[in-house]
Amino acid sequence: MKNSSANQYPYSSRRTVTYGHNGMVATSQPLASQAGLDMIKKGGNAIDAAIATAACLTVVEPTSNGIGGDAFALVWTKNKLHGLNASGPAPQGISIEKLKKAGINEIPKFGLTPVTVPGAPSAWVELSEKLGKLPIIEVLEPAINYARNGFPLSPTLAYNWEKGVENFRKVLKGEEFQGWFDTFAPDGRIPKAGELWKSEGHARTLELIGETKGEVFYRGELADKIDEFSKKFGGFIRKEDLGAFRPEWVDPISVNYKGYDVWEIPPNGQGIVALMALNMLKNDEFNAREDVNTYHKQIEAIKLAFADGEKYITEKGSMSQSVENMLSEAYGEKRRHLIAEEALTPEAGEPDAGGTVYLSTADGDGNMVSFIQSNYMGFGSGLVVPGTGISLQNRGHNFSLDPEHDNALEPGKRTYHTIIPGFLTKGKEAIGPFGVMGGFMQPQGHLQVVMNTIDFGLNPQAALDAPRWQWMKDKQVLLEHSVPNFIAQALSAKGHDIQLTHMSGSFGRGQIIWRDPFTGVLAGGTESRTDGAIAVY
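Given the sequence above, the corresponding structure tokens read:
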């Protein structure tokens, strides 16, 4: 990367880069960041810190994730990068035929139909058992404490909470949704910034997970409650689906971009979209970040990558194209040749045969974790299993009901997944974890953050603060209000349908920790578009 000590980005210098040496946790909530750092100070490692932070985020940022969501992790330990896929499958009792017979021609966003097996608790337990140092019940203690005794809402959280409740009041009708309203709008009132919120059911569920190392959630009392709730309201998920689930250790995938290896979790995650776009651009020279050529080529590359992703990404065994073919040098060059001077409407190619939280942690021993978990679409399905605090995800909404589509709904299958952790290495050295949350913005954020770092030499905070763009569909592109006006005008002249917006929340929320391989010094950045915080010592 060019001049990694570069100062802040001149257009959006809202925070300064943070340095540390013995431990660092970067995430979107100060209380969660501190919870993770406390684990390192107790003698735990970056893995313990990641688990504590993730569990805490289910309490202090329920607008984006919950106990009933999924998770993915990239873990650097003992000079090797490991991948964990803890995304759950569709229930065995669901099928395209059953839904169509019931008059459902598109999987709904809310309710029990899109609920898939939650994987997040399994990720915490698996990471703790395999790579952690502290007992998981101790690691979950900060989250249990905040759920039981309450925590004050931060400003951005309160804003998103209010929007979520107001939206659900309009769209959620039925007895099955009452538990959600009882939990997040108790007595009909939406909590405000600075007010305390707590959930004893959430606290007790976390305690049970810690005491039984997750068994109670997948094969015990909590599994029974999820099963009973689903049966009562006509859902498909059953205790047998929970009991059969195990998270999967996977080999991370990567492309080399200008001397750095950029790593993602393989499909069913959409990290391959970011890698395909980088693969198209790795031979291009970008002389300035605020240049229309930079924006144009980035946008065109991500459009082409998303077109392929929408067509092919699903559970690996169901993909009609291999990851290797999609990330090949030849295919990257083939797609790059489609990028011209004018904006295009993207279509998928054919390779030759052959509402999320993100956190980064690092400790003084060189362990580093890139971790992400989500319920999807903010609060998820709109369902909370009564008395448990378990807010269920709605990941099944991404399945296709076209039986010929790669991502067609099938019993026991995992769907195209939006949440993606990222990691950067150079040679045999870890540079560190990075991520940008926010649905289909995530690969776009990964592309921009990586290029800000490698092509333009921005430090972690500046790389996050820099103005962002988001491709929406066809030729439609959102530009953050801080993008220079001359860039917006030049992109319009190239045929892009440009829309400027002050809604910075649309552009994702990221965290970065880079480690100097010679000194071990940690440099962190946290998202200035939300309540981000770095805990460090």
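The chain has two domains: 31-65+78-248+379-393, 250-356+419-536. Try to locate this feature in the token string yourself.
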